[in-house]
Amino acid sequence: xxxxxxxxxxxxxxxxxxxxxxxxxxxxxxxxxxxxxxxxxxxxxxxxxxxxxxxxxxxxxxxxxxxxxxxxxxxxxxxxxxxxxxxxxxxxxxxxxxxxxxxxxxxxxxxxxxxxxxxxxxxxxxxxxxxxxxxxxxxxxxxxxxxxxxxxxxxxxxxxxxxxxxxxxxxxxxxxxxxxxxxxxxxxxxxxxxxxxxxxxxxxxxxxxxxxxxxxxxxxxxxxxxxxxxxxxxxxxxxxxxxxxxxxxxxxxxxxxxxxxxxxxxxxxxxxxxxxxxxxxxxxxxxxxxxxxxxxxxxxxxxxxxxxxxxxxxxxxxxxxxxxxxxxxxxxxxxxxxxxxxxxxx
Length: 346
Known about the structure:
Blueprint: E1 2-3, E2 10-11, H1 25-28, H2 34-41, H3 44-57, E3 63-67, H4 73-80, E4 85-89, H5 94-104, E5 111-114, E6 127-131, H6 142-154, E7 155-162, E8 165-173, H7 176-182, H8 198-203, E9 207-209, E10 221-227, E11 235-243, E12 248-262, E13 265-268, E14 280-291, E15 296-304, E16 315-323, E17 332-337
Helix pairs in contact: 3-4
């Protein structure tokens, strides 16, 4: 679902949600679960866009790596585009079934399967191209670093990575629908119990949701542009400022990515583009704040993609200061981080 202007009503995305959906593996912990790969393949925008980029970039005779091959769909697309050899790397058990799928499609002699973590892989020859659907919630993710590290070891001179570049964008939003969901722990006593302790965890969590550009209180800002072969994709740090264009309730920030895959093909997760599995990211404020037109919103944003604690691949940080028109100092300051969403005993 998408949120309409003012966050007061709902409309369906351009592609209707299926009536039955698998539970994403992030909730089950079964990384090789077929449900996860079905979830990916059901996103036709994602899959068809990657295949178009492969068809535009792969040259006959290329040696290609498909890092995180999963269902094998991108490895087979590379074969069809003319690759001489495809090294399909996958750490999870899905690789056993994927090998049979590739053989059933007559590509078993071209694809070499490697059942290992990429950090433990040494390829027998330099490669021309590394393909990986390595995108996180706002673009950079922990797997993107694996792609870069493999490229440093294995790409021949002049070799390429698909995707080539990722850009991150963010905008302040008014969305009572999302805010009400996040702040529900402070309302009432569910089943007769006080559950408000959970509110701090919820307010520092990162959410995925649909937005409409009409919910923006100010124009979007680009917070990063990263070329995978040249830039540090392990972290993003950026301070940006917004000038509110209409009065309303500031509920948080909407974030997304725009990616140059290669060959002139782009994949975007913005509210204005066709729906994808990534949707958009919602970074909530600790509490909604009424803002007038002309209010300055200062955002100090951080994204770290490498793990800082076990079983957590990375974290978001967003610190917000609101300065009303004519004021010299902030009226509200919020310091939030997804590290605070980890339950801790006191």
